[in-house]
Amino acid sequence: MKNYSLGKSNLQSSRLIYGCMRIAGDQSVNDIANGKLAVHSAIDAGYNHFDHADIYGGGASEQLFGELLKRSPHLREKMILTSKASIRPKNNENPYAPTRYDFSKQYILSSVEGSLKRLHTEQLDLFLLHRPDYLLDIHEVTETFKQLKASGKVAHFGVSNFKPSQVAMLQSALGLPLLVNQVEINIHNIDALNDGTLDQCQQHSITPIAWCPLGGVAYAAWGNTFLAKDEQRIAGELTLQAQKYNCEAWQVILAWLLKHPADIFPIIGSTTPERIVAAKVALELNYSREDWYRLLEARNGQSVP
């Protein structure tokens, strides 16, 4: 698998990123074993970028990954490790507190420390703010990021689920480049095509990372609004294109995302080794502009204006 630069940096990431949200499963012995196998399958398949967050598995996903690195520390040298923070569950360390987002300096610093400890590493290659905090103070975040950078605990920074205005606001004070914006992009949720997210990514060399790239096809999309007739229409077009490109329908969807000139990096979150490997088929498809628009038309139920 070829590696490409992330944003304005020298980080060379595999075009497909392995998402570690589900690797700990229900934390049973069987699920832990399957998660370890999935990670090794991704490594063997050429994935070098692994996406984490402090809340995945309540920390168990990072812990599982860290145990692998502790046993095989040589693997760390060729990896990009990303983690995220800001989502705090209800009652988390405070029985009065509701579910909330938190960009406070104290919380970000403590979250990074926790991730480093669980992952058995001294530095995160990339740290992302997971979801926008309505109480975002750009000066406090800037101070926090600069402290993490100076301490060597984080090499680079980015955001997740940010709107273009939020990216621009934070970037205006930061003085460090935001390398990525990780957002939901799939056949169901095409907001990034319309709200300026991908435009901003192209303009400022910010790498868009797509979470849930197969939503609405391989699994139900978040907040699904498709009607049965919509799903049938999309499935029909995907069947035709899968036959044309001699692949699976879900691989066509990945090719559809990869076609965009903003250079989207999809996150593959499967724990099935065969699927982790098979996702690479999309990288080799010579996917056409005409098929891209045919699929968009099938998704919308009408031609573009």
Descriptive report:
- The chain is an alpha/beta fold and 305 residues long.
- Helix content is 41%, strand content 17%.
- It has a single domain, classed as TIM Barrel (Alpha-Beta Barrel), CATH 3.20.20.
- The chain has eleven helices and twelve strands.
Question: Quick gist of this model?
Answer:
The protein has a single domain (3-223, 262-278), classed as NADP-dependent oxidoreductase domain (TIM Barrel). 41% of the residues lie in helices and 17% in strands. It has helices at 29-44, 60-71, 105-119, 138-151, 164-174, 191-194, 197-204, 228-245, 249-258, 273-278, 289-300, and strands at 3-5, 12-14, 17-19, 49-51, 80-85, 87-88, 100-101, 124-129, 154-160, 178-184, 207-211, 265-268.
- Uncertain stretches of 5 or more adjacent residues: none
Query: Main β-sheet: number of strands, strand sense, barrel status?
Result: 8 strands, parallel, barrel
Strand % is 15-25%
CATH-defined fold name = TIM Barrel
Strand order of the largest sheet: 3-4-5-8-9-10-11-12
Rg from Cα: 19 Å
Distance between the ends: 38 Å
> For the record, what CATH class applies?
Alpha Beta
Kindly report the name of the CATH homologous superfamily. NADP-dependent oxidoreductase domain
Q: Bin the helical content.
A: 40-55%
- The number of helical runs is 11
CATH architecture title = Alpha-Beta Barrel
Q: What structural category do the secondary elements indicate?
A: alpha/beta
The average pLDDT is: 97
Please tell me what the overall shape is.
globular
Q: Number of folding domains?
A: 1
| Total count of strands | 12
Helix-strand string: EEEHEHEEEHEHEHEHHEHHEHH
